[in-house]
Amino acid sequence: MHRRRLHAYLTAALTLALLLTAHDRLRPAAAPPADSADHGVCRGTDPRCYHDWGNFDPATDGYRVLVYSRTAGPRHAHLGPALPAGLNPPLTPAHAAQSALVRLGTENGFAVDWTEDVTQLSSPARLFRYNAVIFMSTTRDALDDPAQTALRQYIRGGGGFAGIHNAFGTEYNWPWYEGLLGDANYYDHGRNQPGTVVTTSRRDASTAGLPARWDFTDEWYNLVPFPSRVRILATVDESTLPDGATGGSGHPGHGRNHPVSWCQYYDGGRSWVTTLGHAVEAWTDAPMAGDTSFVQHVLGGIESAMGRRPFCR
Protein backbone atom coordinates (compact mmCIF):
# COMPACT_ATOMS: atom_id res chain seq x y z
CA MET A 1 0.00 0.00 0.00
CA HIS A 2 2.82 2.39 0.93
CA ARG A 3 4.57 1.74 -2.39
CA ARG A 4 1.35 2.31 -4.33
CA ARG A 5 0.78 5.68 -2.58
CA LEU A 6 4.36 6.76 -3.20
CA HIS A 7 4.04 5.80 -6.85
CA ALA A 8 0.76 7.77 -7.13
CA TYR A 9 2.33 10.86 -5.54
CA LEU A 10 5.34 10.70 -7.86
CA THR A 11 3.09 10.24 -10.89
CA ALA A 12 0.96 13.25 -9.90
CA ALA A 13 4.05 15.40 -9.30
CA LEU A 14 5.53 14.46 -12.66
CA THR A 15 2.25 15.22 -14.43
CA LEU A 16 2.04 18.63 -12.76
CA ALA A 17 5.63 19.43 -13.73
CA LEU A 18 4.92 18.55 -17.36
CA LEU A 19 1.79 20.70 -17.40
CA LEU A 20 3.65 23.67 -15.95
CA THR A 21 6.43 23.27 -18.50
CA ALA A 22 3.93 23.20 -21.36
CA HIS A 23 2.19 26.29 -19.98
CA ASP A 24 5.48 28.17 -19.80
CA ARG A 25 6.20 27.31 -23.42
CA LEU A 26 2.84 28.67 -24.53
CA ARG A 27 2.99 31.81 -22.39
CA PRO A 28 4.52 34.87 -24.15
CA ALA A 29 7.75 36.28 -22.81
CA ALA A 30 7.25 38.67 -19.95
CA ALA A 31 7.04 42.28 -21.03
CA PRO A 32 9.61 44.74 -19.74
CA PRO A 33 8.42 46.34 -16.49
CA ALA A 34 6.42 49.54 -16.76
CA ASP A 35 7.85 52.69 -15.28
CA SER A 36 5.70 55.19 -13.43
CA ALA A 37 7.43 57.96 -15.39
CA ASP A 38 6.07 56.32 -18.54
CA HIS A 39 2.44 56.69 -17.48
CA GLY A 40 2.50 53.27 -15.83
CA VAL A 41 2.48 51.39 -19.14
CA CYS A 42 4.96 49.30 -21.10
CA ARG A 43 6.48 51.36 -23.89
CA GLY A 44 9.60 51.62 -25.98
CA THR A 45 11.09 49.71 -28.89
CA ASP A 46 10.90 46.24 -27.33
CA PRO A 47 8.19 44.18 -29.12
CA ARG A 48 7.41 42.43 -25.82
CA CYS A 49 5.34 45.54 -25.07
CA TYR A 50 2.91 44.51 -27.83
CA HIS A 51 -0.31 42.62 -26.99
CA ASP A 52 -0.77 40.01 -29.70
CA TRP A 53 -4.19 38.91 -28.47
CA GLY A 54 -5.67 37.90 -31.82
CA ASN A 55 -8.01 40.87 -32.18
CA PHE A 56 -7.19 41.23 -35.88
CA ASP A 57 -7.48 38.66 -38.66
CA PRO A 58 -6.26 40.21 -41.91
CA ALA A 59 -6.52 36.85 -43.69
CA THR A 60 -10.28 37.00 -43.20
CA ASP A 61 -11.03 40.70 -42.79
CA GLY A 62 -8.28 42.30 -44.87
CA TYR A 63 -6.69 45.57 -43.75
CA ARG A 64 -8.70 48.67 -42.89
CA VAL A 65 -7.82 52.01 -41.27
CA LEU A 66 -9.87 54.87 -39.85
CA VAL A 67 -8.83 58.46 -40.59
CA TYR A 68 -9.96 60.84 -37.84
CA SER A 69 -9.60 64.57 -38.54
CA ARG A 70 -11.87 66.28 -36.00
CA THR A 71 -10.74 69.77 -34.97
CA ALA A 72 -11.80 71.63 -31.84
CA GLY A 73 -9.45 74.53 -32.48
CA PRO A 74 -7.39 75.85 -35.40
CA ARG A 75 -7.94 73.88 -38.61
CA HIS A 76 -5.24 73.22 -41.17
CA ALA A 77 -5.95 74.10 -44.78
CA HIS A 78 -5.10 70.58 -45.89
CA LEU A 79 -8.23 69.32 -44.08
CA GLY A 80 -10.68 71.52 -45.95
CA PRO A 81 -14.05 72.45 -44.40
CA ALA A 82 -15.33 70.57 -41.37
CA LEU A 83 -17.02 67.31 -42.34
CA PRO A 84 -20.62 66.47 -41.42
CA ALA A 85 -21.46 63.72 -38.94
CA GLY A 86 -21.30 60.05 -39.82
CA LEU A 87 -18.85 57.71 -41.44
CA ASN A 88 -17.39 58.48 -44.87
CA PRO A 89 -19.18 61.77 -45.59
CA PRO A 90 -18.60 63.27 -49.06
CA LEU A 91 -15.12 64.65 -49.69
CA THR A 92 -14.32 67.61 -51.92
CA PRO A 93 -11.02 68.59 -53.57
CA ALA A 94 -10.46 70.89 -50.58
CA HIS A 95 -10.18 67.84 -48.29
CA ALA A 96 -6.65 67.25 -49.53
CA ALA A 97 -5.21 65.14 -46.71
CA GLN A 98 -8.23 62.87 -46.24
CA SER A 99 -8.50 62.33 -50.00
CA ALA A 100 -4.79 61.53 -50.25
CA LEU A 101 -5.04 58.89 -47.52
CA VAL A 102 -8.09 57.31 -49.20
CA ARG A 103 -6.14 57.22 -52.46
CA LEU A 104 -3.15 55.61 -50.72
CA GLY A 105 -5.41 52.83 -49.51
CA THR A 106 -6.97 52.29 -52.92
CA GLU A 107 -3.57 52.12 -54.60
CA ASN A 108 -2.03 49.82 -51.98
CA GLY A 109 -4.78 47.36 -51.17
CA PHE A 110 -6.21 48.48 -47.84
CA ALA A 111 -9.60 50.01 -47.05
CA VAL A 112 -9.90 53.53 -45.63
CA ASP A 113 -12.84 54.99 -43.70
CA TRP A 114 -12.87 58.60 -42.56
CA THR A 115 -14.80 60.66 -40.06
CA GLU A 116 -14.87 63.73 -37.83
CA ASP A 117 -17.75 62.34 -35.81
CA VAL A 118 -16.51 61.48 -32.30
CA THR A 119 -19.33 58.95 -31.85
CA GLN A 120 -17.60 56.77 -34.45
CA LEU A 121 -14.84 56.30 -31.84
CA SER A 122 -17.17 55.74 -28.92
CA SER A 123 -16.54 52.04 -28.27
CA PRO A 124 -13.64 49.59 -28.51
CA ALA A 125 -15.82 47.31 -30.63
CA ARG A 126 -16.05 50.01 -33.32
CA LEU A 127 -12.31 50.59 -33.27
CA PHE A 128 -11.38 46.91 -33.39
CA ARG A 129 -12.76 46.86 -36.94
CA TYR A 130 -9.61 48.80 -37.89
CA ASN A 131 -5.99 47.68 -38.00
CA ALA A 132 -4.92 51.27 -37.34
CA VAL A 133 -6.48 54.60 -36.40
CA ILE A 134 -4.93 57.69 -38.01
CA PHE A 135 -5.17 61.07 -36.29
CA MET A 136 -4.82 63.47 -39.21
CA SER A 137 -4.15 67.00 -37.89
CA THR A 138 -6.72 66.76 -35.14
CA THR A 139 -6.68 69.72 -32.76
CA ARG A 140 -7.32 70.39 -29.08
CA ASP A 141 -9.98 68.30 -27.30
CA ALA A 142 -10.95 66.11 -30.23
CA LEU A 143 -12.21 63.23 -28.05
CA ASP A 144 -14.92 63.01 -25.42
CA ASP A 145 -14.76 60.66 -22.42
CA PRO A 146 -16.20 57.56 -24.18
CA ALA A 147 -13.84 58.03 -27.13
CA GLN A 148 -10.84 58.42 -24.82
CA THR A 149 -11.72 55.19 -23.06
CA ALA A 150 -12.31 53.37 -26.35
CA LEU A 151 -8.99 54.53 -27.84
CA ARG A 152 -7.09 53.39 -24.75
CA GLN A 153 -8.79 49.97 -24.77
CA TYR A 154 -8.15 49.65 -28.50
CA ILE A 155 -4.44 50.35 -28.11
CA ARG A 156 -4.24 47.98 -25.13
CA GLY A 157 -5.80 45.29 -27.32
CA GLY A 158 -2.99 45.54 -29.88
CA GLY A 159 -4.34 48.35 -32.06
CA GLY A 160 -2.24 50.58 -34.29
CA PHE A 161 -1.96 54.37 -34.17
CA ALA A 162 -0.54 56.81 -36.71
CA GLY A 163 -0.35 60.46 -35.69
CA ILE A 164 0.28 62.95 -38.48
CA HIS A 165 1.22 66.63 -38.14
CA ASN A 166 -1.16 68.33 -35.72
CA ALA A 167 -1.98 65.11 -33.93
CA PHE A 168 0.63 66.77 -31.70
CA GLY A 169 -1.74 69.67 -31.05
CA THR A 170 -4.39 67.37 -29.58
CA GLU A 171 -5.55 66.30 -26.10
CA TYR A 172 -2.96 68.45 -24.33
CA ASN A 173 -4.20 67.61 -20.84
CA TRP A 174 -4.31 63.84 -21.22
CA PRO A 175 -0.99 62.30 -20.09
CA TRP A 176 -1.76 58.87 -21.60
CA TYR A 177 -2.13 60.44 -25.06
CA GLU A 178 1.11 62.34 -24.63
CA GLY A 179 2.73 58.98 -23.94
CA LEU A 180 1.18 57.61 -27.13
CA LEU A 181 3.05 60.36 -28.98
CA GLY A 182 6.33 59.15 -27.48
CA ASP A 183 6.09 61.18 -24.28
CA ALA A 184 6.39 64.24 -26.53
CA ASN A 185 4.22 67.20 -27.39
CA TYR A 186 4.02 70.22 -29.66
CA TYR A 187 5.40 73.46 -28.23
CA ASP A 188 5.75 75.87 -31.16
CA HIS A 189 7.16 76.32 -34.67
CA GLY A 190 8.60 78.97 -36.94
CA ARG A 191 7.19 79.88 -40.32
CA ASN A 192 6.50 77.31 -43.01
CA GLN A 193 9.93 77.06 -44.70
CA PRO A 194 12.11 74.73 -46.75
CA GLY A 195 14.56 72.40 -45.04
CA THR A 196 16.31 69.07 -45.46
CA VAL A 197 15.00 65.90 -43.84
CA VAL A 198 17.67 63.41 -42.75
CA THR A 199 16.67 59.73 -42.83
CA THR A 200 18.26 58.35 -39.68
CA SER A 201 17.19 54.71 -40.06
CA ARG A 202 16.82 52.86 -43.37
CA ARG A 203 15.56 49.59 -41.79
CA ASP A 204 12.06 50.73 -40.93
CA ALA A 205 9.13 50.19 -43.30
CA SER A 206 8.53 53.96 -43.35
CA THR A 207 12.09 54.84 -44.34
CA ALA A 208 13.17 51.91 -46.51
CA GLY A 209 14.08 53.25 -49.92
CA LEU A 210 14.07 56.91 -48.89
CA PRO A 211 17.06 59.09 -49.77
CA ALA A 212 19.54 59.73 -46.98
CA ARG A 213 18.60 63.43 -47.28
CA TRP A 214 15.57 64.94 -48.99
CA ASP A 215 14.24 68.46 -49.31
CA PHE A 216 10.82 69.30 -47.93
CA THR A 217 8.85 72.30 -46.70
CA ASP A 218 7.10 72.31 -43.33
CA GLU A 219 6.57 74.13 -40.04
CA TRP A 220 9.23 72.00 -38.28
CA TYR A 221 7.60 71.54 -34.89
CA ASN A 222 9.59 72.14 -31.73
CA LEU A 223 8.72 69.75 -28.92
CA VAL A 224 8.32 69.80 -25.14
CA PRO A 225 8.70 67.20 -23.76
CA PHE A 226 11.28 65.73 -26.13
CA PRO A 227 10.44 62.17 -27.29
CA SER A 228 12.02 59.45 -25.20
CA ARG A 229 12.39 55.66 -25.43
CA VAL A 230 11.40 55.77 -29.11
CA ARG A 231 13.18 54.92 -32.38
CA ILE A 232 13.80 58.18 -34.20
CA LEU A 233 13.36 57.60 -37.93
CA ALA A 234 13.96 61.04 -39.42
CA THR A 235 15.19 64.46 -38.32
CA VAL A 236 15.47 67.89 -39.90
CA ASP A 237 18.88 69.47 -40.44
CA GLU A 238 18.34 72.80 -38.69
CA SER A 239 21.30 74.34 -40.55
CA THR A 240 19.24 74.14 -43.77
CA LEU A 241 16.33 76.23 -42.42
CA PRO A 242 16.56 79.79 -43.82
CA ASP A 243 14.93 81.31 -40.73
CA GLY A 244 16.35 78.80 -38.27
CA ALA A 245 14.34 76.63 -35.92
CA THR A 246 13.42 79.22 -33.28
CA GLY A 247 9.71 78.99 -32.59
CA GLY A 248 7.08 81.67 -32.19
CA SER A 249 7.01 81.12 -28.41
CA GLY A 250 10.75 81.32 -27.99
CA HIS A 251 11.77 77.65 -28.31
CA PRO A 252 15.37 77.65 -29.62
CA GLY A 253 15.05 74.42 -31.62
CA HIS A 254 16.70 71.08 -30.95
CA GLY A 255 20.13 71.53 -32.49
CA ARG A 256 21.79 68.47 -34.01
CA ASN A 257 18.90 66.13 -33.14
CA HIS A 258 15.59 67.64 -34.22
CA PRO A 259 13.25 64.68 -34.72
CA VAL A 260 10.34 64.75 -37.16
CA SER A 261 9.26 61.06 -37.17
CA TRP A 262 9.57 58.17 -34.72
CA CYS A 263 7.93 54.94 -33.56
CA GLN A 264 7.40 52.89 -30.40
CA TYR A 265 5.30 50.15 -28.85
CA TYR A 266 2.92 51.66 -26.33
CA ASP A 267 0.59 50.11 -23.75
CA GLY A 268 0.10 47.00 -25.89
CA GLY A 269 -0.20 48.71 -29.26
CA ARG A 270 1.91 50.27 -32.02
CA SER A 271 2.46 54.00 -32.47
CA TRP A 272 4.05 55.67 -35.51
CA VAL A 273 4.06 59.47 -35.60
CA THR A 274 5.37 62.33 -37.73
CA THR A 275 5.23 66.09 -37.29
CA LEU A 276 5.44 66.52 -41.08
CA GLY A 277 2.56 67.26 -43.43
CA HIS A 278 1.61 70.94 -43.08
CA ALA A 279 1.56 72.08 -46.70
CA VAL A 280 -1.51 71.40 -48.84
CA GLU A 281 0.83 70.60 -51.72
CA ALA A 282 2.25 67.66 -49.75
CA TRP A 283 -1.14 65.98 -50.10
CA THR A 284 -1.98 66.85 -53.72
CA ASP A 285 -0.52 66.45 -57.18
CA ALA A 286 0.81 70.01 -57.10
CA PRO A 287 4.60 69.92 -57.48
CA MET A 288 6.57 70.22 -54.26
CA ALA A 289 10.11 69.18 -53.40
CA GLY A 290 10.16 65.92 -51.47
CA ASP A 291 6.45 65.16 -51.77
CA THR A 292 7.10 61.69 -53.21
CA SER A 293 9.40 60.81 -50.32
CA PHE A 294 6.88 62.19 -47.85
CA VAL A 295 4.00 60.11 -49.22
CA GLN A 296 6.21 57.00 -49.26
CA HIS A 297 7.17 57.73 -45.65
CA VAL A 298 3.54 58.07 -44.53
CA LEU A 299 2.47 54.95 -46.41
CA GLY A 300 5.18 52.86 -44.76
CA GLY A 301 4.29 54.25 -41.34
CA ILE A 302 0.61 53.41 -41.74
CA GLU A 303 1.29 49.92 -43.08
CA SER A 304 3.66 49.15 -40.20
CA ALA A 305 1.28 50.56 -37.58
CA MET A 306 -1.50 48.31 -38.85
CA GLY A 307 0.79 45.25 -38.81
CA ARG A 308 1.01 44.73 -42.55
CA ARG A 309 4.76 45.36 -42.58
CA PRO A 310 7.40 44.89 -39.84
CA PHE A 311 7.06 47.57 -37.18
CA CYS A 312 9.65 49.95 -35.75
CA ARG A 313 12.79 48.34 -37.13
TrEMBL record:
<feature type="signal peptide">
    <location>
        <begin position="1"/>
        <end position="22"/>
    </location>
</feature>
<dbReference type="Pfam" id="PF06283">
    <property type="entry name" value="ThuA"/>
</dbReference>
<keyword id="KW-0732">Signal</keyword>
<protein>
    <recommendedName>
        <fullName>ThuA-like domain-containing protein</fullName>
    </recommendedName>
</protein>
<dbReference type="InterPro" id="IPR029062">
    <property type="entry name" value="Class_I_gatase-like"/>
</dbReference>
<feature type="domain" description="ThuA-like">
    <location>
        <begin position="93"/>
        <end position="303"/>
    </location>
</feature>
<dbReference type="InterPro" id="IPR029010">
    <property type="entry name" value="ThuA-like"/>
</dbReference>
